[in-house]
Write a structure and sequence with these properties.
- With 513 residues, the chain is α+β, with helices and mostly antiparallel strands.
- It folds into 3 domains: 186 residues, no CATH class; 183 residues, Oxidoreductase, molybdopterin-binding domain (Sulfite Oxidase, Chain A, domain 2, Alpha-Beta Complex); 107 residues, Immunoglobulin-like.
- 36% of the residues lie in helices and 22% in strands.
- It has 10 helices and 19 strands.
- The structure holds the ligand Nc1nc2c(c(=O)[nH]1)N[C@H]1C(S)=C(S)[C@@H](COP(=O)(O)O)O[C@H]1N2 and molybdenum atom.
- The site of the ligand Nc1nc2c(c(=O)[nH]1)N[C@H]1C(S)=C(S)[C@@H](COP(=O)(O)O)O[C@H]1N2 has 18 residues, from loops.
């Protein structure tokens, strides 16, 4: 085999190995984290890094919208680099696959920068790199064997050639299949994106009252009063985030109703929307935990939709169902009373993020998410607790889940070293649907003392508090507790999250110097 022929096969081996790897990564990304494509992430990173002159030239040549040209350029660049990696590997063992691994690292870094710390998004570039490297190494090793066989009469030439082409063929077939599958997945993501881009969040018929300036305390280390969408806790059973094209979506009411009704996204957006700040919480939240967040939700009252269907007597529960099969059981009165439960489409002034239930979800003040806050909502089945069990209720969690009143110390963090003398504590407290009237703190076994409550947003949201205490040098334990607006004190007995939510006082340890 001449050097030229060897190089040719090595080049092709590199191209096919990396094509299979990269396309497998894209396919996985389309499934795991549709908002981050590894190839686009690398491309955008490169574009961001171009000198302004070159960038302007590229934009004027291709136009900002021309993603096809962009992807073609990326394909050619990646293809040539991959082919060269194959040639390097054939000439100097390890030179080629190290190059590919280096590109893989670059891809992982680019994805990580875009994925806002979502570690799941790292899987696709890592899989792409591992698969590419493995295939490249195997293919080139077989190519060498084939060439050795030509010089060594004791080895069968036929076998050497066949073994090489097996690997090459597998890479080609894999690249083709994953390429087709990626096209289908990406196509559906693209059509979702186009449909989403057309949507406009309607103006609320009833806007939320502006937040009083005194509601947000300026204490360093205190969590924000309203949590931005990209920092909002996320809990669901969906490994792959459901990507729903809003043009195809509809929400229907079934079960014990006078007539089944349904609504499309366009119809939903045309309803008079109300806007509310509501603090939602996860039943798995430990005392002092982070699985709680407050946002401004925009939506249509569930009771108005239920009224269209006509709820029949005897029904006491609504089983809400999501696109991916998750279900939650919500007592019907929580959806029809004056707490303003909504079919939410907006979160902090934006369409719901994919991860938080686009196109629509339920928001019910006062109930843990697992029995109320169904994301990717598709159906409301009017039924009874007797007849139906929701997703988590079949797994040992309580059928009903009112949020337990609780309070939390945000700052200082437990274990922190602080200066002795005056110490400022701050945090939040919540008793959704009732409101908080008092927060108290205690150092060691000292007197409980009242904290200062910030102005509240509403009884359905957490309220911030701060307190100044005196601490002597040494180790201390600091606790917080609350009283709700009905005079009910927070439960002191410790309870683990299962089966119906944690209780007890949040306590931290500090070290005063
Ligand atoms: N479709 C679907 N909706 C869901 C869940 C889920 O697993 N699937 N989890 C629920 C739980 S347990 C909680 S605490 C909230 C969390 O909402 P968030 O991720 O927007 O914070 O969503 C609820 N809605
Ligand atoms: Mo939850």
């Amino acid at each position: 085999m001449s050097q030229r022929v060897l190089d040719g096969w090595a080049f092709l081996s590199g191209v096919l190995a990396v094509a299979f790897g990269v396309l497998a990564g894209e396919l996985l990304a389309g499934w795991l984290s549709p908002s981050v494509s590894p190839v686009s992430a690398v491309g955008s990173m490169v574009i961001d890094g171009l000198p302004p002159g070159v960038k302007d030239l590229a934009i004027s040549l291709f136009g900002t919208a021309d993603k096809v040209v962009f992807l073609l350029v990326m394909a050619v660049v990646i293809g040539v680099a991959a082919g060269l990696a194959g040639v390097f590997e054939a000439h100097r063992k390890n030179a080629g696959w190290l190059l590919v691994a280096g590109f893989g690292l670059l891809g992982a870094a680019a994805v990580f920068a875009r994925a806002q710390g979502n570690t799941v998004a790292l899987a696709p570039p890592v899989v792409a790199a591992l698969l590419s490297v493995a295939l490249l190494r195997i293919a080139i090793a077989r190519l060498r064997d084939w060439r050795t066989a030509q010089a060594d009469p004791t080895v069968s030439l036929e076998t050497g050639r066949r073994r090489f082409f097996q690997v090459l063929g597998a890479s080609a077939a894999g690249a083709l299949l994953t390429g087709l599958a990626t096209g289908v997945v990406r196509g559906s993501v693209a059509s979702y994106q186009a449909a989403r881009d057309k949507l406009k969040l309607p103006a609320p018929a009833e806007p939320a009252a502006p937040i009083p300036a005194a509601a947000q305390l300026e204490v360093p280390g205190l969590r924000p009063l309203v949590i931005p969408n990209d920092q909002f806790y996320r809990i669901d059973t969906a490994l792959a985030v459901p990507v729903i094209n809003p043009d195809d979506w509809q929400l229907k009411i079934t079960g014990m109703v006078d007539r089944e009704v349904s609504i499309t996204m366009a119809e939903l957006l045309a309803q008079p929307m109300i806007e509310r700040y509501v603090t939602i919480a996860c039943v798995s939240n430990e005392v002092g935990g982070d699985l709680i967040g407050n946002a401004r939700w925009l939506g249509w009252p569930v009771r108005e939709f239920l009224a269209r269907a006509g709820v029949q007597p005897g029904a006491d529960m609504v089983l809400s169902r999501s696109q991916d099969g998750f279900t939650a059981s919500t007592p019907i009165e929580a959806l029809t009373d004056d707490r303003d439960s909504i079919i939410a489409v907006g979160m902090n002034g934006q369409l719901l993020p994919l991860e938080h239930g686009f196109p629509a979800r339920l928001i019910v003040p006062g109930l843990y998410g697992y029995v109320s806050a169904t994301k990717w909502l598709t159906e409301l089945k009017v039924t009874t607790f007797q007849a139906d069990l929701a997703y988590w209720s079949t797994r040992g969690w309580s059928e009903r889940g009112p949020i337990k009143q609780s309070s939390r110390i945000d700052t200082p963090r437990s274990g922190a070293a602080v200066s002795s003398g005056k110490l400022v504590l701050a945090g939040s407290a919540w008793a959704q649907t009732t409101g908080i009237s008092e927060v108290q703190v205690q150092v060691d076994d000292g007197q409980w003392q009242s904290a200062t409550l910030a102005a509240g947003i509403s009884k359905d949201t957490w309220v911030q508090w701060s307190a100044a205490v005196e601490v002597a040098p040494g180790q201390h334990r600091v606790q917080v507790r609350s009283v709700d607006a009905a005079g009910q004190p927070q439960r002191a007995e410790y309870a683990a999250p299962a089966p119906d939510g944690s209780s007890g006082y949040h306590a931290i340890r500090i070290n005063a110097q």
